[in-house]
User: Fold this.
Amino acid sequence: MSDREPPRRRVPGPARPSRPATAQRRPGPGARPARRPTAPRPAAPRAIRLGSPRPRLRMVGLALTLVLIAFVVRLLQVQAVDASAYAAKAEQNRYVGQVLPAERGEITDRTGVAFASSVDAYDITADPTMFTRGQLKVGDGPEQAAALLAPILGQDQSALVKKLRPKDASLRYVKLAGRQTPQVWKQIKDLRSALSTKEETDSSTVNVLAGVFSVPSSKRVYPNGNLAAGILGWVNADGKGGGGVEQQLNGTLAGKDGKIRYAQSGGRQVPTVGSTETPAVPGSDVELTIDRDIQWAAQNAITEQVRESRADRGYVIVQDNRTGEILAMANSPGFDPNDLSQANSADLGNASVQDAYEPGSTAKVMSMAAVLEENAATPLTHVTVPNRLHRGDRLFQDDIDHATWYLTLNGVLAKSSNIGTILATGQLGRTQTEANQVLYSYLRKFGIGSHTGLGFPGETKGILAQPGKWSTSQQYTIPFGQGMSLNALQAASVYSTIANGGVRVEPTLVRGTKGPDGSFTPAEAPAKTRVVSQKTAKTLAQMLESVVDDEEGTGAKARIPGYRVAGKTGTANRVDPATGTYKGYTSSFAGFAPADNPRVTVYCAIQNATEGSYFGGQICGPVFKQVMEFSLKTLQIPPTGAKAANLPVTFTP
Assistant:
């Protein structure tokens, strides 16, 4: 048993009656005093019950899930579905390609002396995307760059701005200037470097030239200035031949451009990333038949005579009559292909093959060739030449008034009688129509009315109508060189044909080409055509000697001491190319030497001499003599020492 007393249970008693809340107890003996009533306390603020965070977390989680799904889908699209397309675009932006210009071949004379060559130069280029506001952080980047480049490149500032801000915003390559000297590129490069250095220390400085670059190129130079400019031509701004041999043989000279493709960053090549390159193939050198020294002598002589005569222009052709090779082809006035800005547009080109004109009496040699070859007459045939000759609807005369001349056929050529030539060629047929047809056939065989075979750009073939279309006057003027036209090279070729024993050799200007490997390829042999017999050619050479050596001849000023010279003067009415009417004269002289063993043909023509004499023998004869003497010495051709035939010029009736 426990020592504790068990708890007493309280037995509920009878319930006490409750008091009214308002009843007051009376204090009894020993009772505590009643409490004072207290003021009611203010009610406590109601607490705000927060919602559950779980719905919000679910929303945020869902949003993040959707974002991640979008990223995953895009990632799959970029790396799997469109991977190749994006890779290609990235490579396109990363890799750039440039053309590697081929070195242009040289043009040399027959001894290898350079007439035209190429030197190092640079094409100044730019990447327009590097001049945008996004790249430079300035809006006038193209304007600032153009202001710096314009004075260096010598170009208009607004034109440069258009190139640096092209319409195609994706364009990444433009050429600002082509074929600039190394000095020009060094100026730009130094200025760009200075801006870059300043940009590193001065935050307000912007290197507006960061997007300007250079591409190695070459520039065409002509070390002899205007010498042989009409033959050589020039190279245009695109690097292509713009005239002459440069244009004619552009494909041979130009070679084949190469290509390079490399990775770039900030406009510069990344050296650690591979590149692909197709090397350029250099052009071939072209060796001309021209002798530089003879070309100089011919050009100097014709330039001086054109100046003294105050003429419109003049030409000199020097040709090796055995091979057809052109040793000189000079024009005056000319131009300097190094600076076309100073050239007169009328002087560009090669007038020796591009001008067509009526030759006058130098064409009489073809009429005489036909007469001799057809056995219509001999050098000793008597020809009575009256002061005037009525034919058709015209009255013909010689260049001077004279009493009746009693000439041999040789004398007709020596004294250059128009009337005598009409009478002689009238014997080519039983009728004038038949005679016209025969003469026409010989003119054609001599190359009149056809291209020379040179293939030179802009070459004219002259004008020679079909005999059935000859007017009444042309039937009698064509025999003495009026009413038909030719160029200077055609005229020289006629005399080379006589000098070569009656065989025409197509004129040639190119001896061959030398490839990049140094191998020389000779030009194709020129075509040869027999025009007249060797006997006729020899007889004509003797007759042409009378023009120079005989006192009755018109070519005394072409005599060369120690040498036998065959030649012919010419003075023709000139057609003014501006008005199409006759105005002034074409003066000429053609011949070859030594007359009995011909080696060199020289032809000279001067258009519209206005000071001093205009007769061919007087102003072209001295040019012929000067150029022929120089050529004979240069080529070391000695005199033959044989005596001239001295065919009679007149006869006693």
User: Anything to note?
Assistant: The two ends are 203 Å apart (CA to CA). The CA atoms of residues 429 and 435 lie 4 Å apart. The longest strand covers residues 114-126.
